[in-house]
Design goal:
The protein is mostly helical. The chain is built from seven helices and no strands.
Length: 223
Amino acid sequence: MDILQCLAESRHSVDMNDKFFMLSMASIVFNPTFWNIVARKEYRSKFITRMFGGNGLYGCYALAATIFTLGLIRDAIFKYAIDRQPEAECMKNPVIQAIGLLLFGVGNLFVLSSMWVLGVTGTYLGDYFGILMEERVTSFPFNVNENPMYNGTVMIFMGTAIYSLRPAGIYLSCIVHLVYLVALRFEGPFTTQIYLKRDRDRAAAAKTNGVKNLSKAGSKKDL
């Protein structure tokens, strides 16, 4: 029996009205909604930077700590919510369990390696604070997955659900995936615009400096 057939046969056992199942859905939706709203407000008004005396780096660290904490809370609610749900005996299949472990392992590899490559500011929206990277990261895991942080997180959720024998967790993992797809629709274009503006500002500054240098050269020649 494959996992799709197993999921189809056990779907009626999932209690989607359970208060912790609903709380888990709410926390999954809330987190990316929160950081996108806060980060955009920071980009436009610098309200977090001002809270830290104009230090954008400290502001970014504060938001990073907040997002990380919210993630831990979301994960704890998810695990508690699925542990309250019925197990699916068909998911005890060794192949299905191996798939769960593989997803969990690869997902963690993607997430942790992404954080290592990007650092704190690259991982936690530093570009909204004006802390921009000089060039696009193309090393692992970005050379095998365009969005390894988000996709890795989905894989961790899915792997946990499968290994825990909880179909409810698979449904919640699908919600995680859907929410991240929506988040990327907003984050991707906005982040691109931030870097395009940086490039335009640099080009304008270089042009201005070039004109000034030519003016100075002309003045010296006249003398």
